[in-house]
Design a protein that fits this description.
elongated; mainly alpha; disordered C terminus; 759 residues
Length: 759
């Protein structure tokens, strides 16, 4: 058993480190090259010669595990190894002739334009096909094929740093390496492959450009034959039939490539306005990559003989290496394809979240009243949940019944204008991200004000839910006791409910999980809203012949408009109900003891349990631990949902890391110094009090924070304004008839007043 283990370890190490490890133990580089070049036999098969080329490439990039050199140092080491290899081959003419014949024969047998038309480019027609291919490549190694040189090229350059190494090579080394690899016949063959790759890529661009999914999103509308994509085909064919150095045809081809690139920007603008399709985003990204590759190949074909042509070929090879590694990234594909969708979802959630933000005392009271309405409905939901639990249904049907109960309650709350407290963060956090994306990184006060407004809105909704759910549940329990003479819960069930809500236990974990489910429900709402806009459902319903015949034109238009306004709320409520009801069932299927903890439902359950046990339980430690658990549930569920939604919205808007971290530090410092400012509404101040607060801030810090932030963001404009103010102060005399003092000699009050005037 021990021998088998060591043998498997040796096999694993050989698999990781590759074949040339046995040649690296020799200190003499000449002996290493002699051992490697013997494998490049012109009489050997194509696979043996290809493996010999791979071994030689691994010798060039070999790097020990422990080294003191940085990336630039190892690039220089690779360049020195390449130069030594060429010098050693020049010194050994017989070996050079054999290696040269083997390399040229290998390159000559690998035919087809796949090296230039598929390396590093997405070629699957759909997003999920490309995703499946990339996942397959992560698991299975690629097969070397004589008819596809792109596989050999990818194996020769497995390191992303190879692109920078290729760009760092000088012209002399490139010329010597080219003489080793190719002759006139190989050069002519690959010249033809470049032209074939241009033709193939142009055909794929035209196929996507004239498809209905693209043409319907182009503005202004034009016939198919007038689109720039068909004109691109004509110009490319004209250029390929003529001389490579025909500047007129080359300029026309490049101009059409740029015009097609601009058309993709218009498609992005249409998607950003009317809804995002992940599949269409992938096809647009594929078209942009193909157009960029066409531009690279046109540069290579049009290069004049000499240094310029060698440099363009060098740039093309480096671009092939970089794009090959970029394409192999599954994470990169997901990020590029879903970035626009994430931003669109964040924007739509921000539009809905604007209505749920308490910006002043009146808004705070409005959210509080909406929370009271939601708490009244949640009170009935709690008792319905207890009643369904008494039926003793199978676990799946119990979860389905709970989901139906939640769905009816959430939809009723939305219909009467109420709010569910913990659903607010997921739709209000994108509104904050929309403000942060428009602000300067050092402008903290407006960010603090926005954060305070959002957190006050959450607190108002939670207070409203809790203030309503407790008396409603108590009243319904008393009504049931008078009507049927029984408590809602048995003593054992009531004690178990109180213990389950305790802070000492898994309640914090369940609350964090509930916050994650709330965020997922907001994603479902955003997806539904995006799908509604992408499919033009409003136009379909308002103009459908049968719908108009049944309802009339005006009612059909009103119904479509109402559905467009409320589709996000309906989908979000249904998704949240399904997640809250079925998540424990799904966790139990995998034997995971998970549950949900919603603050309003937990508060209602606690009131029902205390009603069943007796009011003397209010003085027990178990009750207060349960109260602490409800407080922790409110904080964690709101915090997790808000953090997830804010992180998605910030990443979707490409807010810099510096701005994100600065905002977090500013909010945390303000919360630690004045926590009540984030909980209760801020009183309105008069103009005199506002000026006194500003002067206090100036005296405490020594500078005007608002003026400093504006000066940092617009230094040139403010310097010009300061110079104009200085000139104006010099022009106006004082009471003695002499010009006023320079700004540096003014008193602190005059300087502060001048700054306020400029602001």
């Amino acid at each position: 058993m021990k021998f088998l283990f060591y043998k498997m370890l040796v096999v694993w190490r050989r698999l990781r480190h590759g074949v040339p490890g046995r040649h690296m133990d020799r200190d003499d580089a000449g002996r290493q090259l002699d051992a490697l070049t013997r494998r490049l036999d012109p009489a050997a098969s194509w696979y043996e010669r290809a493996n010999g080329m791979l071994a030689l490439g691994e010798w060039l990039r070999h790097r020990p595990k422990v080294t003191l050199l940085d990336r630039a140092g190892w690039q220089e080491v690779r360049r020195q190894r390449l130069e030594f290899m060429l010098d050693w081959l020049d010194a050994n003419r017989d070996v050079r002739r054999s290696v040269q014949n083997a390399l040229q024969k290998t390159l000559r047998e690998a035919t087809g334009p796949e090296l230039f038309s598929t390396t590093g480019l997405p070629h699957e027609p759909g997003f999920f096909g490309e995703l499946a291919e990339r996942l397959t490549r992560m698991i299975l190694p690629r097969h070397l094929s004589p008819s596809d040189l792109s596989t050999l090229f990818a194996a020769m350059f497995p390191d992303p740093e190879d692109a920078a190494w290729l760009l760092a090579l000088d012209d002399e080394l490139l010329a010597r390496l080219w003489r080793l690899l190719a002759d006139d016949g190989v050069a002519h063959m690959y010249w033809q492959q470049v032209e074939e790759a241009i033709t193939y890529l142009t055909t794929t661009v035209i196929a996507d450009g004239i498809s209905p999914a693209f043409r319907q999103r182009l503005e202004p509308k034009m016939p198919m034959r007038a689109t720039p994509f068909l004109a691109l085909r004509r110009e490319i064919e004209t250029y390929l039939r003529g001389s490579p150095h025909d500047q007129g045809a080359l300029r026309s081809a490049r101009m059409l490539v740029a015009v097609c690139h601009a058309q993709t920007d218009r498609i992005y603008a249409h998607l950003d306005e009317y809804g995002v399709s992940v599949s269409l985003v992938y096809r647009v990204e594929r078209m942009r990559a193909h157009l960029q590759r066409i531009g690279r190949l046109l540069d290579v074909r049009s290069a004049m003989p000499g240094e310029t042509g060698a440099g363009r070929v060098q740039v093309l090879l480096a671009d092939l290496v970089a794009s090959q590694h970029h394409r192999s990234s599954v994470r990169g594909l997901m990020r590029r394809s879903f970035a626009l969708l994430a931003r669109k979802m964040a924007e739509r959630n921000a539009d809905h979240g604007e209505q749920a933000i308490a910006r002043d005392g009146a808004g705070y009271r409005r959210v509080l009243r909406a929370g009271l309405l939601g708490g009244v409905v949640i009170g009935g939901t709690v008792l319905m949940k207890i009643t369904l639990a008494r039926l003793g249904m199978v676990q799946f049907f119990d979860g389905a019944a709970a989901s139906l109960n939640y769905a009816v309650s959430f939809l009723l709350i939305s219909a009467i204008g109420g709010v569910v407290a913990t659903r607010q963060p997921a739709i209000t956090a994108p509104a904050l991200a929309a403000r942060v994306g428009e602000l300067d990184a050092d402008d903290r006060r407006r960010v603090l004000a926005q954060s305070a407004q959002l957190l006050r809105s959450q607190c108002a909704a939670i207070f409203g839910n809790l203030l309503a759910v407790a008396p409603v549940v108590a009243a319904l329990c008393a009504l049931g006791w008078f009507a049927w003479g029984r408590e809602p819960l048995s003593p054992e069930q009531a004690r178990a409910a109180v213990a389950s809500l305790s802070l000492i236990g898994p309640t914090p974990l369940y609350a964090a999980l509930t916050g994650l489910l709330l965020w997922l429900a907001s994603l479902a709402a955003g997806l539904a809203d995006n799908w509604f806009a992408l499919r033009r459902v409003r136009e379909v319903l308002s103009q459908h012949r049968r719908v108009v015949h049944a309802l009339g034109a005006m009612r059909a238009e009103r119904m479509a408009a109402w559905l467009e306004r409320n589709v996000a709320a309906i989908a979000g409520n249904l998704a949240l109900a399904l997640l809250l009801g079925m998540a424990p069932v799904l966790a139990a299927f995998f034997s995971l003891p998970l549950d949900i903890r919603h603050v309003t439902l937990a508060a209602g359950t606690l009131v029902a349990a205390i009603f069943s046990l007796g009011w003397e339980w209010l003085a027990t430690p178990a009750f207060w631990w349960a109260v602490a658990g409800i407080v922790a549930t409110a904080v964690l569920s709101v915090g997790v949902a808000f953090a997830c939604a804010l992180a998605l919205a910030l990443r979707a808007r490409d807010v810099s890391r510096r701005a994100r971290h600065g905002m977090q530090r500013a909010v945390l410092r303000r919360f630690l110094s004045a926590p009540l400012w984030f909980i209760f509404p801020e009183r309105r101040k008069s103009a005199t009090q506002h000026e006194d607060d500003q002067s206090d801030d100036e005296d405490a810090s020594g500078i005007d924070l608002d003026a400093a932030a504006r000066r940092f963001s617009q230094p040139r404009v403010l310097e010009r304004r300061a110079e104009e103010d200085d000139d104006a102060d010099d022009d106006f005399p004082d009471s003695s008839g002499h010009p006023g003092p320079p700004p540096s000699r003014r008193s602190g009050t005059q300087a502060a007043e001048s700054r306020r005037r400029r602001a």
